[in-house]
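#structure-requests
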Amino acid sequence: MIKALIFDCDGLLIDTETVQYHAFCEIYESHGLDLPLDLYVQCVGSSFADFDPFNHLKINSAQNVDLEDMQAELTAKITEAMKKEKLRSGVQEYLETAKEKGLKLGIASSSTREWVLGHLEKFDIIKYFDVIHTRDDVEKVKPDPELYNKTLSTLGVHANETIIFEDSLNGLKAAKAAGASCVIVPNKVTAKLPFENHDIKLDSMSDRSLDELLKEVVECYNS
């Protein structure tokens, strides 16, 4: 029996990932460089440990790069672009249905608490979540399962009673390492990634109602 749903935040509930990638691309272009998507996706859903776009630009640019100025420029571009963004399709309906069904809801994000809370409050969905854990609460972020293990523990549920929603390879690895079912809902940046070992993949949450999805996950368990 499914008792809880845990969601990633960036790129899944709100497509901040595509906004951030395009902002980085604009900055790279101003330095006469490209930022290949297959390189950038290494840090999606995780930290900049495997690939740091800031340092990569600094190393490869023929121009002098001030990292603080670059961060400020990136933040300004993202802030402006996010004014046009909405919740991803189907998200609101999933959250409302989940609460009506009495399911516990959690957030497990590799981003900072300030960043996550800011977006949840802006889109007025923070009220749906019983638990919110971010990179500020753990030693290791995704693909390590610590964020999901901590969220499961705080919610008081077992992995086999939980569905995790993710949009990245790093998130998928963390979810499966935690032992939970994982539904992949990729965004424009992660749509072509080679997802494997997931339980269900949707183009968006509006593709299938939550009731239909829960039924499908239970059938997978019983098969």
